[in-house]
Amino acid sequence: MGSSIVLKLLKVTHYYRNKKTKKWYLPFGYAAEDIDLNNVSLHIYQGEALGIIGEPGSSKKLIGRLLSGSIHSDKGKLVQSDHVYYGDIEDRKIVNQTVKDYVKHIVELFPYKVSDYKYDQVIQYAHLDEKQLVSQLTKQEFAQLLLSIARSSKSNIIILNHVLQYLDESFTNRAIELSNDYINHNQTIVFIDDDVDKIEQVSNYITWVSHGQIRMEGSLKQVIPVFKDHERDRKSIESKEELSSFDLDWKKSRTRMPEMTYNFKRIERYNHAKPPIFLVRFWTLMTSFLIGLALMGILLFNNLGIINISAGNQTPLQTQTKGTYENKLAYGIALKGSVKISGSNNLTLPKYSVVTIDGENSKNYRLNESGKSYTVAKSKLEYFNPAGLYEKHSFKTLSPYIKSNYSKYVEYFNSHLHKDHDTVKKSLVPEEDNRFVADVTSQPIKMIFNDDNQLNGFVMPIVNKSELKDKFNINKDVWICKSGDGYFIADMKDNKWIYIEL
């Protein structure tokens, strides 16, 4: 698998789950039951064959449509780095063309020059009659057609939404061949499906979507058995009352309203109460009218609507693009000491702080901290990309080189990960409570808090350093390895381990 992220959803929320039409007065009229996807972040890597699974009604189909860009989220953003081919089994219903016309139109959009007879090859591979209407194809026939188009598209990213489950054995084998080919050529393919057995055959990584949220991600061995156990439990329930109580925590989590403003926090506190529709409409219209009236007055009486363009004021393209940030998704660690970062409110990050890098140019990183943007010189932070091809070692292998205060009680300490700051400090009492890094009282262990002020790591001493260097052939100041759900970063200069679980 390659090291770069080619497709990602960042904190995406999407509404309208139970709404037939999009109302003009939303989002102020949202209710809890309207949330389809809630705060979903998904990163898809180069060379990855990702399988997305989930119980019925989990909104995994919607994730495919968001990833393809065919629909847009209400909150959060999509980042695509390359050409995407997207095939959705539901499109069959809305295509009133013959197979030949449909394929011919799709082939013209391929990211390479094609021969005049390419569409014939696509149709023959799918075993279809070119004169058939697409809308009259069976789901199996349309699935065969989508697989054939995907194979011929040569797009660096393919997304197939509920296609696998309708393929017979011979076409399933073709899907397996396509997946293996994409992995071997360091390209990316995503399968979203209900047929878990077929997903296992075509994927090398799994994301489990549950009630509009990412529930679990990992290798096939990590995720598939847990999901199958969950589905056995769900399907064994016969009573409607028991079924409504099944997975209740996840159902409630789906319907948490996003905290956009103080007013939304109050709405969330009072069980998602929403203002009356007529009141929302009235105040929205009134506000729009007043703003428009004010702008019209400014334009009429102050001539502010006139723009003078002179040749001497044009900015050269080179000047405009200088310092432009390229989007990234990585992390920076303050290993050299405290670091000052610049933004609307300048901040000083203490040593071992971990921050999100969402952009870079030739000199600086752009950081995202608590939803605000900051910049810092590249030399100030140690760059850490979780997509990197790091060595993998079990905690058991690493534990002889980790201070026993942490290694003996690792399960206790790690049970606090991903909990918010206030909750954590009740158990792991800090000596001096700091927003980013705080010492655990009477322990040689520090806590690290992420952008959302949740615990996502620890700092602890290295022991048996020379043995550690010999065993893993470490000849640099910073050594990183993957372990379980997180990463161990060895700061050899300061004799410290930093454990990060993102």
What would you say this structure looks like, in words?
- This protein has 502 residues and is an alpha+beta fold.
- The protein folds into 3 domains: 250 residues, Rossmann fold, CATH 3.40.50; 60 residues, Roll (SH3 type barrels); 110 residues, no CATH class.
- Helix content is 32%, strand content 25%.
- It is built from 17 helices and 23 strands.
- It has a 7-stranded antiparallel beta sheet, with no helix packed on it. Strands 17-21-22-23-20-19-18 form a 7-stranded mixed beta sheet, with no helix packed on it. Strands 5-6-7-3-8-9 form a 6-stranded mixed beta sheet, sandwiched between helices.
- The protein is globular.
- About 6% of the residues have low confidence.
The number of distinct helices, counting runs of at least 4 residues, comes to: 17
- The strand order across the widest sheet is 12-11-15-14-13-10-16
- Can you count the beta strands? 23
* Radius of gyration using CA atoms only: 26 Å
Q: Quick check: average pLDDT?
A: 84
Measure the end-to-end span.
19 Å
The parts where pLDDT drops under 50 for at least 5 residues are 259-274, 309-321
Q: Which class of secondary structure composition applies to the elements?
A: alpha+beta
